Amino acid sequence: MGGLAHYIEDEGLATTQISLIREHTEIIKPPRSLWVSFDLGRPLGVPNDVKFQTSVLKHALKLFESHSGPVLEDFPNDVPDSATEPVQVACPVNFNLKPDVTSPTGKLLEQFTAEIGQMRSWYAVARKKKNRTTIGVSGLSPDDIAVLFADFIEEKSRAILLEDPASVDRLRMGCEDLKAYYFEAVSAQPGQPTDSQNLADWFWGETFAALVINKVREICLKDRSGKLALLGKLLLIPRNQMHRFEG
Description:
Blueprint: H1 2-10, E1 17-19, H2 22-28, E2 32-35, H3 50-62, E3 71-74, H4 105-130, H5 142-153, H6 155-161, H7 167-187, H8 196-206, H9 208-222, H10 229-235
Parallel strand pairs: 1-2, 2-3
C-alpha cells in the first residue's frame, strides 16, 4: 500500500495509511503513515472496541494536515488490556509437558507432525461451525506446511528448496496458515477464550509449532546471502512474543 500511495499522490490525491510493520514503512516512505503496535491483520486494534478503533482512524486522518512528507508517526497507545483477568487456554489436545526447547531436531519435527494431527478434529469442528476458514494464503494444507518446514530445517533438503525463488514467501505464508489452523482449532472448544492475546500466548508459549517456527527463524538469521534476513527478523514471530525464544 505504501508504494501505491506514491502513485496516487502523483495523480493529485492525498493519502494516509496505517502501518503494522514500521521497518517496511521506513523503507517505502509513503507520504503519510501511522504506525501501530498491533497484531498483524488487526490495524485498528481489538475487534468491537469502537472507541479505540475510532481513535486510531482519527490519528491516521489527522496526518492529512501534513501537506508534504514522508510523515511517519507512532500511534501513542497499545491495544487496551482486557477488562477481565487473562483466561488460560485449556486446549482439549494433550500436549503433555511444555515442549522441550533442547529436543533434537528430528524429535521436535516428529512432535510437531503429531501435534498437527491432534488438532485436526477440532479444526474440522470449527470449519463446520463457521462454514469458512482463514487458512489458504499459502495454498498448502497443514500437513504440507509441516513438510515444508521440515525440508527447510534439514540442511540437505534446504538447498534444493531454496532453488525455488517463491519458497521464502511460501514459508512466510505457511506460518500464517499454520497459526490460523491452530487458532481456529483451539477456539472450537466450548468456553475457550478467543481474544488474540490469549491465543497468541498459548500458541507461542505452549506448542511444538512455535518451536519449529523459531527453528526456521534461527536458520534465516544465520543465512549469509541476505535473502532470508527479513523473514527471520520480522515476519515469523511477533515482537511481543520474542522474549520466549531469546536469551
